[in-house]
Design a protein that fits this description.
Largest sheet: 8 strands, mixed
Shape: globular
Number of strands: 19
Mean pLDDT: 91
Low-confidence stretches: none
Strand content: 15-25%
CATH superfamily of the largest domain: Dihydrodipicolinate Reductase, domain 2
Helix content: 25-40%
CATH architecture of the largest domain: 2-Layer Sandwich
Number of helices: 16
Number of domains: 3
Radius of gyration: 25 Å
């Protein structure tokens, strides 16, 4: 017979408050030994909790500091509760009564007890009271503008009510048909000279640099579709300027912020497939069939799409020593590019991008103990499989996300501003430099080739 009665409970415990502590005290009163599971950031995001302010580490430390808590663990996935009941020989699983019925299935493993919560206080309420509303403006009206606005509604303390486009009629029609965008501008300086503190930029690639620069100089935080600039000196200038002006500059690469993508990186860091030797990723899209403009397609496959595989390759393999391009063209722009990057220790990155050729959009990460397969579309990572020589050891990780995935990126951007942070761990300035290196080197190479052709023609 056990000497002590073990109680277990779980929660996010963001901005630890009296309501949390009272619930934990009630849980402890049910037995002798209290285990508290603190949810991991990736798990929180995967189940729709986008507005958590504090890191997992900080929340764990806060719970560890409570003298009536005996053990703190981290909850990383939805099946862990059942596993923990067995692992820790739990007598009672305690949880707040706002979850009544949701965990009845755990009665198979232990006794489930729903406890009364403290009325009138919550982390959500504290976040609303402690953080100002962030007012954001949209720069450019494109195919994804409405999706961005809709996804932003799931992020606390964020309000989008302005839009800018140099085309007056576009602005007029958009604001007329929008239920949330009340103000339209066709003058960028006037747009920036408003109460907005942040902007989201989604325009043609060649406009990014100047739009970002002006926004930063006006003291605005910037979230911009990649690439931020089309040459290395401009990119360095923007990152340096953002640091000088103490504003946040972040590439809008939503893949970097998806729960499954970040869990993938965690598993790789933990050595799940041994030493990583090669990363392969493909991203193709036949934009003509989607009725994109010729002007958009003429930006080239590398400029439009290479940021995605470059993100995966650089996050895993780090800085590249050498990059080789094997492109196919339609006139002046590339419709396909096979990009080989060489990294420290002989590791290889293989990226395939195309706007005029269609391929399977999957990714493979190869290691000395096994490999990870991410099915298409890998850049919208929701699932990945860890495969070994012994196929019976295959592990499958599922992290479904809500909406189109933009809300996770928007939530991170907003959270960084609220916490007065100027860089994201998910996508650092160094990450952005490495990701953009591929397209910047390609553009430099193409420019050099054209200059040589011009000189040759003059002779």
């Amino acid at each position: 017979m056990k000497d002590k009665k073990t109680i277990i409970t779980y929660g996010t415990y963001d901005m630890l408050h009296v309501g949390h502590m009272k619930l934990l005290e009630r849980a402890k009163a049910l037995g002798d030994y209290l285990i508290v599971g603190v949810t991991d950031e990736n798990y929180d995001r995967s189940r729709g909790k986008l507005n958590v302010v504090e890191s997992t580490k900080k929340r764990v430390k806060a719970i560890e500091a409570l003298d009536f808590v005996d053990k703190v663990i981290v909850e990383r996935h939805k099946n862990q509760k059942a596993e923990d009941m067995v692992k820790y020989d739990v007598d009672i699983f305690a949880i707040g009564d706002d979850w009544v019925g949701a965990f009845d299935y755990l009665n198979e493993y232990t006794h489930v007890e729903y406890l009364a919560r403290t009325e009138g206080i919550s982390s959500t309420k504290l976040r609303r009271e402690n953080f100002d509303i962030i007012r954001m403006g949209i720069v450019g009206v494109g195919r994804d503008t409405q999706a961005f606005i809709e996804e932003s509604k799931f992020v606390s303390n964020l309000k989008i009510n302005r839009v800018y486009s140099s085309d007056f009629l576009t602005v007029k029609n958009f604001t007329k048909n929008s239920d949330s965008i009340k103000y339209g501008h066709d003058n960028y300086d006037d747009f920036l000279d408003t109460s907005i503190s942040a902007v989201y930029i989604d325009t043609s690639l060649d406009e990014h640099y100047m739009l970002i620069k002006k926004a930063i100089e006006a003291g605005k935080h910037v979230l911009c579709e990649n690439p931020l600039a089309l040459n290395k000196s401009e990119l360095k200038e923007l990152l340096s300027l953002a640091k000088k002006e103490k504003v946040l500059l972040l590439s809008a690469l939503k893949t970097a912020f998806l729960p499954a993508f970040n869990q993938l990186l965690t598993e790789l860091d933990n050595g799940i497939i041994g030493e990583i030797k090669e990363v392969r990723a493909t991203r193709t899209s036949l934009y003509k069939e989607k009725n994109y403009s010729d002007e958009f397609i003429a930006q080239g496959a590398t400029n439009i799409l290479s940021s995605y595989p470059s993100l995966l390759v650089s996050k895993i393999l780090g800085k590249s020593n050498k990059i080789t391009f094997f492109d196919q063209k339609d006139g002046d722009y590339d419709i396909s590019n096979l990009i080989i990057s060489e990294h420290k220790g002989g590791k290889i990155g293989v990226s395939r991008v195309a706007t005029g050729v269609k391929s399977e959009g999957d990714a493979v990460i190869s290691g000395t103990k096994g490999y990870i397969y991410i099915p298409a579309p890998w850049w919208l990572t929701q699932k990945f499989e860890v495969r070994f020589e012994n196929e019976h050891k295959t592990q499958v990780f599922n992290y479904q996300f809500d909406g189109c995935g933009l809300r996770y990126m928007i939530a991170e951007f907003t959270s960084l501003i609220q916490r007065d942070k100027r860089k994201s761990k998910m996508l650092t300035p160094s990450d952005m430099m490495r990701i953009n290196r591929v397209l910047l080197e390609y553009n430099d190479r193409e420019k050099e080739k054209k200059n040589k052709e011009i000189k040759k023609g003059k002779k």
